[in-house]
Amino acid sequence: MKKIAVSLYFIISMVICGGLVAQNNDIKENKQIENPVSPQVPESDNAKMWRNSFERLIGVWSLEKTIVDDNGEEKKFHPGTFMIVHPDASYTIFVHCDAGAIITSQGSIIIESSDQYVEVISHHVNKYFIGVSNSIDYKLGPVYLHKSFWVDRDREGGDYKRQVNEVWKRGAIPEIIIQ
Questions:
Q1: Where is average pLDDT lowest: 31-40, 72-81, 121-130, 162-171?
Q2: Of 34, 41, 50, 90, which residue is most buried, by most CB within 10 angstroms?
Q3: Residues linked to residue 148 through DSSP beta bridges, in sequence order
Q4: How far apart are CA 150 and CA 133, in angstroms?
Q5: pTM given for the model
Q6: Handedness of CA 36, 37, 40, 43 (dihedral sign)
Q7: Which H, E and C letters describe the chain, residue by residue?
Q8: How confident is the model at residue 105 (pLDDT cuts 50, 70, 90)?
């Protein structure tokens, strides 16, 4: 119960203090930035012209799942898993359930290239992920973030060895129409 209260306090304080802000969905292309990972290594001009700068990851994201119904039609739903990417390159992933919000993962993000970043995991519900630097292949659009990564171990420490593919949809502020 104390963890739930702390989680809710964290979310509420982020909203009140401006840590959760509306994100700009405008597409920024070919922004010149330096490689934050290893500046001493010579780079090609293409590596400096990343289309997906870190700023485009900042915001609130909702995990999107796809199921196929009995008629063979695909249906998308959001199971209540959210990711917040903060302006300081940290992230928090949490699940909303009957007990409230439960933080499942926290850490930092290091952009490697326009299609790969690293999640440096500091806290995770799977103790085998704590302290791990997980390489993530990604494709980032204005509304969707497609992530693909490898998982070696399950929560009990057994062999899992699977590729995981996730689709995250950017949270948006709807336009309010006043009549």
A1: 31-40
A2: 50
A3: 137, 165
A4: 11
A5: 0.65
A6: negative
A7: CHHHHHHHHHHHHHHHCCCCCCCCCCCCCCCCCCCCCCCCCCCCHHHHCCCCCHHHHCEEEEEEEEEECCCCCEEEECCCEEEEECCCCEEEEEEEECCEEEEEEEEEEEEEECCEEEEEEEEECCCCCCCCEEEEEEEECCCEEEEEEEEEECCCCCEEEEEEEEEEEECCCCCCCCC
A8: very high
